[in-house]
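Handout, section B. The chain below has 202 residues.
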Amino acid sequence: MDSLPVPRSVLRVDIVRSSSRGPDRQTFLDAQLKSVVERASESGLHLLFPNAAMHTRPDGDSMTLLIGPEVPKAWLLADFVLRELAIALHDVNRRADPEHRLQVRAALDHGEITVNAPHLGGPAVVTTARLVDAGPLREFVERHPARDLALIISDRYYQDVVTSGVRGLDRLVFDRVEVEVKDFRQVGWLFQPDVSPERRVA
């Protein structure tokens, strides 16, 4: 019997410029990404929500994480992505030489997901895959090369989670952007902390 869709938050993380400078560097960065996600999960997610459903699908220089509804979406964004993941990235990069620095683009959405491992299905899976390739997110990375983490969230996640202000989430640090990737056309919200309005991606 086919798996039934289940509610999940979907986090997609992609390594920036992973394939440049040879396969050895790419292999190293792939391992670093796995280590960063595991570290961030162990320092908060698994401790506070030990029974939460979680599925991870690595795909070379990217990774898709499905997180169950036991984990509040506001906590996932504010505490896991913007704190634990950012800290784990910083800790890895402060010991790395510039050649092997790990910089990632991340996208977050939620919805009904079908899991037939290794296959994942559902609009949120497609949305995060497209958002992480969004032009405004890539432009942000180019403008701010010193940032370890560049994040974009779906309009659904913004409306359902960020606008509530829970866990100190501030809608003013998210900028609305139009995302056009292949046949995908949606609004996304780009996280731009400490960036003055005149320098933000339009």
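Note. Helices lie at 23-48, 73-93, 123-131, 135-143, 155-160. Compare this with the example in section A.
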